[in-house]
Design goal:
This is NAD dependent epimerase/dehydratase. With 337 residues, the protein is of the alpha/beta class. 37% of the residues lie in helices and 12% in strands. Helix 2 (47-55) packs parallel to helix 3 (77-99), helix 4 (140-146) packs antiparallel against helix 5 and helix 8 crosses helix 10. The protein is globular, with a radius of gyration of 20 Å.
Length: 337
Amino acid sequence: MLTSRQRGYHITATVRSHEKIDAILKTHPSWKNNIDFTVVADFTTEEPFDDIFHNTTKPFDYVIHTASPLRFQVNDIRKEMIEPAEMGTTKILRAAQKYGGSSLKRFVLLGSAVAVLNSFEDMTKEGKPYTERDWNPVTTEQAVERKDPVLGYNVSKTRAEADAWELMKSNKPTFDLAVINPDIIIGPMIHPISGPRSINQTNQFAIASFIDGTHKDIEGLTFPFYHFVDVRDVARSHVDALTNPAASGQRILLIAGLISPQLVVNIIRENFPQLRERVPEGNPSQILPPGIHPTGWDMRVSIDILAKGTNEKRWNYIDLKQSVIDTVNSMLEHRVI
C-alpha cells in the first residue's frame, strides 16, 4: 500500500491546535518536511476553511474530509454529536465550492456504514443484505428522546452524508463527491499516544476492553454492530478514491467481515499467551452472542469500484485475525494495555 506522500501528493493537514501539531511531529518526525499543518480550532464554521483555500500556495486538487465527533460520553447528543458532524461537512464543502477553483477535482468524504444500516434492525434474524442504496431511517428526535449516544452517532453520520449529497445536487460544483462508508474501524495506531486514554474509541470497545479488565466475562455482551474494517484499508480506500474514475458520485461500502466479542477474544487468547489470563475465555465455539443474527452486506458494487482504484485491479481486505494481532501489538508497543 502506498501512502499519499509516497504517491507524490503534497499534503495540507488540519488539526485542532498547535499542540496537536507538536505531538504529531514528535511521533512522526519524518512528516515535518512533507506535510503542511494548519489549525482549524472550530470546524463548524466556514472561516477557517475559507482561509485554508485562500492561503495555499498551490491550488488543491483533492479534499479528504474525515473529521466527525466519535465520543459516546456526551451530555447533549444534538449539540455535541449531530450538529458538529453536519456543520463540519457542509462548511468545508461550501468553502471548497466557493474557493476551490477549477483545479479541485474531487471531494472524498469519510462517511460510515451506520448511514446505510438500520439502527432498529431485528438482530434475532438476518435480513436482506444492505447495499449502497440503503439509508438509515433513524432520526435526531429518536436519538435525543432515548438519550442514546450510539443512535446519536448514527444520526450524525447519516445527516452529514445526506447533507453532502444534497449540497452537490443543489449547487452543482465543478468537483465531484465520493463517500467511503466503513463499519467498525480497528487497527494499529499511529496517532500520538500518551497512555490508555489515548486508545481511540473503536479500538477501545472492540479490542482493549477485553484486555484491560473492562469485561471480566463476555456472556451476554453484545456489540452495536457486527462488521469491521482495518484502518489501513480505510486509509488506502481514501487515497485510491482520489483518482479512481469509478468512485465518482458513489457511496462505497467498506466491510471486511464479521466481528464479535467472541471472535476477538479467541484471536487474542490464541496469539498472545502472555495476555491469556487477562482475557475472558467465553465460549470459543459460540461465534455470535446467542440470538444474534446480524444482517450482512452485498459488497459486489463496492468491491468492483474499489478494485478499479488499484494498480492490480483487485481489492483484498486485511482479515480480522491480522487486524486484531496488529492492533494488540500496537497497544503493547505503546504500553497502553
